[in-house]
């Protein structure tokens, strides 16, 4: 009798555990995978995507400094971007756009930090870095209506 109670309780425990694991596995399977930005991977991708003459003019430490500065600019915005969002009354954070001003802002920031690059190099790196961010799923398209 005791053996039957033990076996039944083990079977019930196994069924409950399998059900909980199955539900959680389905829930996790439906979730969107979070993008992970890796400096080495981003640098390699950008170096392959920019034109040869621009890549040849950049040292590895300069490229990494540009990528870090650009990511910081996207995350925290530049002074000009912060002013624009405050004036518009929008406190939802910076919006990534395809305009050339972000490259010019980044150029000024990295030149102030002592990185010796040209505006053409910075713009090529910004364009390639945005493509890398799209590929890993960190950027999404924004449509004129404001919804995706």
Question: Can you offer a commentary on this structure?
Answer:
It contains seven helices and no strands. The chain has 148 residues and is mainly α. It folds into two domains: 1-31; 39-135. Helix 2 (39-49) crosses helix 7 (119-135). The model is unreliable at 80-94 (pLDDT under 50).
Task: Please give the number of β-strands.
Answer: 0
Poorly predicted parts: 80-94
Give the CA-CA distance, first to last residue: 63 Å
Number of domains: 2
Largest sheet: none
The total of helices stands at 7
N-to-C series of helices and strands: HHHHHHH
Mean pLDDT: 81
Shape: rod-shaped
Oligomeric state of this protein: single chain
The proportion of strand residues reads: under 5%
Helix proportion range? 55-70%
Structural class, from helix and strand content?
mainly alpha
Could you tell me the radius of gyration in angstroms?
24 Å
What does this entry show, briefly?
The chain has 148 residues and is mainly α.
List the helices and strands and how they pair.
Blueprint (H helix, E strand, L loop, with lengths): L1 H29 L8 H11 L2 H5 L3 H17 L2 H10 L12 H12 L6 H17 L13
Helix pairs in contact: 2-4, 2-7, 4-6, 4-7, 6-7
Question: Which short descriptors sum up this protein?
Answer:
2 domains; rod-shaped; 148 residues; mainly alpha
């Amino acid at each position: 009798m005791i053996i039957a109670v033990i076996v039944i309780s083990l079977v019930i425990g196994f069924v409950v555990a399998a059900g909980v694991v199955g539900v959680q596995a389905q829930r996790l399977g439906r979730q969107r995978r979070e993008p992970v930005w890796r400096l080495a991977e981003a640098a390699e991708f950008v170096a392959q995507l920019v034109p040869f003459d621009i890549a040849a003019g950049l040292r590895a430490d300069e490229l990494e400094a540009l990528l870090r500065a650009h990511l910081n600019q996207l995350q925290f915005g530049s002074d000009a971007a912060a002013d624009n969002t405050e004036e518009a009354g929008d406190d939802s954070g910076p919006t990534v756009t395809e305009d050339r001003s972000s490259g010019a802002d980044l150029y000024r920031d990295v030149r102030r930090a002592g990185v010796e690059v040209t505006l053409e190099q910075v713009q090529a790196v910004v364009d390639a870095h945005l493509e890398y961010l799209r590929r890993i799923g960190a950027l999404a398209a924004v449509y004129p209506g404001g919804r995706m």
